[in-house]
TrEMBL record:
Keywords: Cytoplasm
Keyword Ribonucleoprotein: no
A Pfam family matched in the record: Vinculin
GO CC annotation: cytoplasm
Record's protein name: Alpha-catulin
Compartments (UniProt record): Cytoplasm
Organism ancestry: Eukaryota, Metazoa, Chordata, Craniata, Vertebrata
SUPFAM superfamilies: alpha-catenin/vinculin-like
MF term (GO), any: actin filament binding
Record's keyword annotation contains Cytoplasm: yes
Main localization (coarse): cytoplasm
Length: 722
């Protein structure tokens, strides 16, 4: 709108339509400024330390907006006696000055508001650190329970603040680092609970103390990294040196080589040779690795040698072309460029194949978690010798997984995925020794229930990271095959501001404490059903199956609705909940369509049952959609509608718990050779992929710090009763 005013061309004749349009724009700018300033003033009133600065910036913005409105008030032109009235037509520089003042003051308001957000996060972090110090020093269970309850609430607050900040970050690299740090905090919260309890129960046990100290140390590092990201600073002013991956090195190298087509003189041959040397040094991570197959190692070495030869040929032709730019030489240069780039593409493909095949084999080998199971059994038996034997095996597995993460980082393809690989490497590096210390504690105290529970928690963290690696591997392959652009996001709800100027129209409606208590049982049932569905989807070998993906998406949405019943999570208002219920119903309908397609391959004995369940699902989803769309006026009617939406969602999830194992059973019967499926054309590949993926980075980022953390805090009530 401001640009429209500034760029307005002066004309001798002005139609009434033009005059009215200019006046409307000026008034719109003034109204928008007024709303914006109201938000700024509300923030100022809540933050006294910046109140004066914020109010000054708001006054400047309001004054500039009013000036623009006055200068565009062209109604006085109709009256000759108002000739002295200054307008945009008589003083365009006035509008330019007002616009500059407005943009300057608006920027000040935004910067001050951002400072307040950063201060809130730092204050929240400081609270968490202070409570952690108290937790480290407690000597009685009663004192620990009280302090941990406070700590849990502070962690939930910190998770919400950093979650909002993560969503607002524009830099994908920072967003990935924030997600990784928040994931550490989420998982470590439960570890801190059980490790501390174990230490309190067995105060003289050295392995228990080592286990607990490791958790506290890791949480402090994660908290520090969050603050580094938020404040955009590093300790002691040092710069962050990110390791260079083979993918990024090849990409930059190819860009330089292809740039020779436009300019033969923009870089030296030494620069190009150095870049290739760095890339080939990194390929030694593959050729020196004990886990790289002989075939891959040989191919990488051959391609490295070929790359050197191609670059030598390129440099030779390039130097000649600089001295004599003939047609033949330029054609030779083009051939050399193409051959060099082709060789680098083949090298990239080979290292990708080496890393992903290793990862795939390792993850398949670890699916049964035999070493973890053996550690639990031998720990309960108090067999220290057997525990020592299996801890050696776990250490070997840890080294393999760490190496896998290092190689995957080289081929991840994007900076956020590189950061995820680094995070995974750190997790395996730290969690391995923590499992060992927890197992040793249990072996020393085999009858201790808390030591057993502690080992379970660390083993679950290990298993969870392995599961995350399967998803990460899939994402890396998606990038390599060019499927990265397909973002499946279903939780992208509008987020009204905390200080909306139009408070009457956009006031968020939340459940009060009494309403939350009424709906708590229903919400808990929904929570249990999401766990059941997640458990069923994990049993499928093909995680890309359309039925699985729809099921995962529905489970994730149902979980966000459960969090709403507790007054937490991403769904802040009843309108958010109803919108989510609509999307959930739509996802259910898509699942029913997938079931119909799948039934075409099923023999008549099983087909009728599958179709019957699919029809039930369609009917339930239609009912939920109608309920979510229905209008509700007043507090009582709104709560009734919320209750109905949650109830109908629960019913759909109950049916989903029956459908998933049925479909999985039919697929397994087919694999076993029982022939329950007809040899029909593949139905999944022919369908357009419209499902939502519950495990995309976006989905994981949105749930970091909330899901498990809130469960831990809730569980404190049970701890107190014990």
């Amino acid at each position: 709108q401001i640009t429209t005013l500034i760029n307005h061309k002066d004309k001798p004749k002005r139609s009434d339509k033009t005059l009215q349009a200019i006046q409307r724009v000026g008034q719109a700018v003034n109204l928008a400024v007024g709303r914006f300033v109201t938000v700024g003033e509300a923030i100022a009133n809540e933050n006294h330390e910046l109140k004066e600065e914020m109010n000054i910036a708001c006054i400047e913005a309001r004054r500039a907006g009013e000036t623009i409105a006055q200068l565009t008030d062209v109604a006085s032109l109709d009256h000759p006696e108002s000739d002295s009235h200054i307008t945009i037509f008589t003083d365009k520089t006035g509008v330019v000055k007002a616009a500059r003042l407005l943009l300057s003051s608006v920027t000040k308001v935004l910067v001050l508001a951002d400072r307040i957000v950063i201060k809130q996060i730092i204050t929240s972090r400081n609270k968490v650190l202070a409570t952690m110090e108290q937790l480290e020093k407690v000597s009685s269970f009663q004192e620990f329970v009280q302090i941990f309850s406070q700590f849990g609430n502070e962690m939930v607050e910190f998770a919400h603040l950093t979650g909002d900040r993560q969503n607002d970050l524009k830099d994908e690299k920072k967003k990935a680092r924030m997600a990784a740090s928040r994931a550490v905090l989420e998982k470590c919260t439960m570890m801190l609970l059980t490790a501390s309890k174990t230490c309190l129960r067995h105060p003289d046990c050295e392995s228990a103390r080592i286990n607990k100290d490791g958790v506290f140390h890791r949480m402090r590092l994660a908290l520090e990294q969050v603050i580094e990201i938020v404040t955009d600073s590093r300790p002691n002013g040092e710069n962050e040196m990110a390791p260079i991956s083979i993918y990024s090195g090849i990409k930059e190298f190819k860009n330089k080589v292809e740039g020779l087509r436009e300019n033969l003189y923009f870089l030296s041959k030494e620069n190009l040779s150095t870049m290739l040397e760095v890339i080939l040094e990194h390929t030694e991570d593959f050729t020196d690795s004990a886990y790289t197959s002989h075939e891959h190692r040989e191919h990488i070495l051959e391609l490295s040698k070929q790359a050197k030869m191609e670059l030598e040929q390129l440099v030779s032709v390039w130097m000649q072309a600089q001295n004599q730019k003939t047609k033949d030489l330029m054609e030779d240069l083009e051939v050399a460029i193409l051959k060099t780039c082709q060789c680098m593409n083949e090298l990239k493909r080979e290292v990708h194949s080496a890393a992903t095949s290793l990862a795939s084999d390792l993850l398949k080998y670890q699916t049964d978690h035999m070493v973890l199971k053996a550690l639990k059994i031998t720990g309960i038996e108090g067999n220290l010798e057997a525990v020592a034997e299996y801890t050696c095996k776990l250490s070997e597995q840890k080294e393999q997984l760490v190496e896998m993460c290092r190689l995957l980082r080289h081929v991840s393809g994007t900076e956020p995925l590189e950061i995820t690989c680094i995070h995974a490497e750190d997790t395996f590096q730290v969690t391995g020794p923590q499992i060992i210390s927890a197992a040793e504690t249990l072996a020393l105290h085999p009858s201790s229930k808390i030591a057993k529970e502690n080992l379970e928690v660390f083993c679950e963290a290990w298993e969870s990271q392995l599961s995350d690696m399967s998803l990460l591997l899939r994402e890396i392959n998606d990038v390599f095959e060019g499927r990265r652009g397909e973002k499946r996001v279903y939780l992208s709800l509008p987020r009204p501001g905390k200080h909306n100027a139009n408070l009457k129209a956009l006031k968020p409606v939340k459940l009060d404490t009494e309403e939350q208590a009424k709906i708590a049982k229903l919400g808990l049932e929904l929570h249990l059903l999401t766990s059941d569905v997640d458990s069923e989807t994990e049993k499928w070998e093909d995680q890309e199956n359309e039925i699985v993906q729809h099921g995962q998406g529905m489970s994730s949405m149902a979980y966000s609705m459960y969090l709403f019943t507790r007054g937490e999570g991403l769904l802040k208002t009843t309108q958010d909940l109803f919108h989510q219920a609509e999307i959930f119903a739509t996802e259910g309908t898509k699942l029913a369509s997938a079931l119909h397609a799948f039934s075409d391959q099923v023999h008549d004995d099983d087909k009728s049952l599958l179709l019957l369940e699919a029809e039930k699902l369609i009917s339930m989803c239609k009912q939920l959609h109608v309920t979510a769309k229905a209008s509700a006026q007043g507090k009582s009617a709104t709560f009734t509608k919320v209750d109905a939406c949650i109830l109908k969602t629960r019913n759909v999830m109950t049916l989903l718990c029956q459908l998933l194992p049925l479909c999985c059973k039919l697929l397994r019967k087919n694999k076993a050779g029982n022939g329950c499926l007809k040899p029909a054309p593949p139905w999944r590949e022919d369908k357009i992929r419209t499902g939502t993926n519950a495990h995309t980075p976006e989905r994981r980022a949105e749930t970091f710090g909330i899901k498990s953390l809130e469960n831990h805090v809730t569980n404190m009530t049970f701890l107190e009763t014990k």
